[in-house]
Amino acid sequence: MLESYPLYLGNEPQRPNADLEVTDKFSGKPVSRVPLADAKLIDTAIGLAEQAAPAMREMASFERQEILNQCVGRFEERAEEFAQVLCVEAGKPIRDSRGEVSRLIDTFRVAAEESVRMTGEVMTLDISARARGYSGMWKRVPVGPCSFITPFNFPFNLAAHKIAPALAVGCPFVLKPASKTPISALLMGEVLAQTNLPKGAFSILPATREGSDLLTVDDRLKLLSFTGSPAVGWPLKAKAGRKKVVLELGGNAGCVIDEDADLDDAVGRVIVGAFYQSGQSCISVQRIYVHESVYSTFKEKLVAATKKLKCGDPRSEQTFIGPMISETEAERLEKWIQSALASGAKLLCGGGRRGAVLEPSLLEGVAKTESLCAEEAFGPVAVLEAFDDFDAVLDEINDSAFGLQAGLFTRDIYKAHRAWDRLEVGGVVIGDVPSWRVDNMPYGGVKDSGLGREGIRFSMEDMTEIRLMVLRTPRK
Ligand code: NAD
């Protein structure tokens, strides 16, 4: 059992109820209860954030940096505890859970560094006779209260990608974590509550669906930053009114293994990209395109390596594939595999399921119209296809509703540049899988995959707006 955790309303821990049950995602058993905020509580939180905005704006950058550094210190001290909680509430294998907590620390550390580097520009404005004697300067000012909504699959680090830049620029916020994994964000709330943040600066509220509506529609909030599925994200944007909107959504990432790739290296990386944390990553390798001259060798090596992956209890140090977030999700993906097989695809390995644990699965010959190709699988499944024409394979990757990241194993710099120019994605990763991310890089997608970029500095730009000062120097 885990403890029962409070929510955070205007920096204060509160337990108005214990309505949300949190389960162990491997056993399915309840392990904790946390409060669930309703619309009234969210309304209060937004009001507190609005009142905190001037104090947040007026903090000196060294004060913001101190708070972020204080969080880094506390996260480091509690890293193992955080990883153990994450392993239970998300079913994330313990090694990956530790990896996520180390990224949480990176994200706050980079935000602490960036918090003292907000710059502007001095401009000449005397571009014509009527502007003689004028100059300008612009700086960035915080947009004000923000609302953040985060998904289940990286409950620490994706909340950190919103919280840390907000603190770095001085925006108060209200965050709603995913109902399946609310504890990670509440643990971050416990740490934030021990800092000197101005009263009311933050609220972290697991919330009912009706309550969550305010986070999108309330005009006191100046920015909505949402990470989650396209099916939820785009309709929220349509309801968001005048606020800025950032959407970090899903994908069905493509990865190309070209004829000159080091196949053993590529296999090792594809195993991680396709299957770590059961493929529940928005940039999980889903569509693998292999040059026909190396297709059968690569396939053989990849299948052999996939069969060796250990599935089961995420608490075990040896486990590579833990449960998916729910049995329903594992059943959904199992059906997608069966549908592809029924329409002529071949199963190379996997396909079996025990409860929420779906075996890592590889297929070939999957029709492009099958969900396994066309939609976001968000599970431990990838499909292989041979190609012979490099430009055609770039078109294949682009032939998708999504565009988050793509990966390309090649040693040919010209092909690397061609891919970078032509692929309709937010990022092209050369020599690695599309699933590679580090927390200071610009990260986000195009098409159905979203709008805007995260990666501290880029979020800080979104959470601020430019304010100009024009200076007229009268002629004597
Ligand atoms: P989801 O869209 O079901 O939920 C995301 C969040 O939105 C949760 O907090 C959920 O409670 C909330 N939510 C759902 N309906 C809502 C509504 N009507 N109003 C307000 N909030 C609402 O996504 P999920 O299942 O938690 O996460 C998986 C999805 O997230 C996948 O599509 C994945 O690709 C995507 N994702 C994207 C990124 C990225 O950075 N691009 C990162 C991780 C996950």
Keywords:
binds nicotinamide-adenine-dinucleotide; alpha/beta; 476 residues; 2 domains; six-stranded mixed β-sheet; Aldehyde Dehydrogenase, Chain A, domain 2; Aldehyde Dehydrogenase, Chain A, domain 1; globular
Could you explain how this protein is built, in words?
The protein is an alpha/beta fold and 476 residues long. The protein has two domains: 7-249 and 450-468, Aldehyde Dehydrogenase, Chain A, domain 1; 254-440, Aldehyde Dehydrogenase, Chain A, domain 2, CATH 3.40.309. It is 39% helix and 21% strand. It is built from 15 helices and 24 strands. It has helices spanning 39-58, 61-77, 79-90, 94-114, 157-169, 183-193, 209-217, 230-239, 263-275, 295-307, 327-342, 371-374, 390-398, 413-422, 457-462, and strands at 7-9, 12-14, 20-23, 30-34, 121-124, 134-142, 146-149, 173-176, 202-204, 223-227, 244-248, 254-257, 287-291, 346-349, 353-354, 357-358, 361-364, 381-387, 402-403, 405-409, 427-430, 446-447, 450-451, 464-472. The strands form seven sheets. The chain has a seven-stranded mixed β-sheet with strand order 14-17-18-13-12-20-21, sandwiched between helices. α2 (61-77) packs antiparallel against α5 (157-169) and α9 (263-275) crosses α10 (295-307). The model has no long low-confidence stretch (mean pLDDT 97). It binds nicotinamide-adenine-dinucleotide.
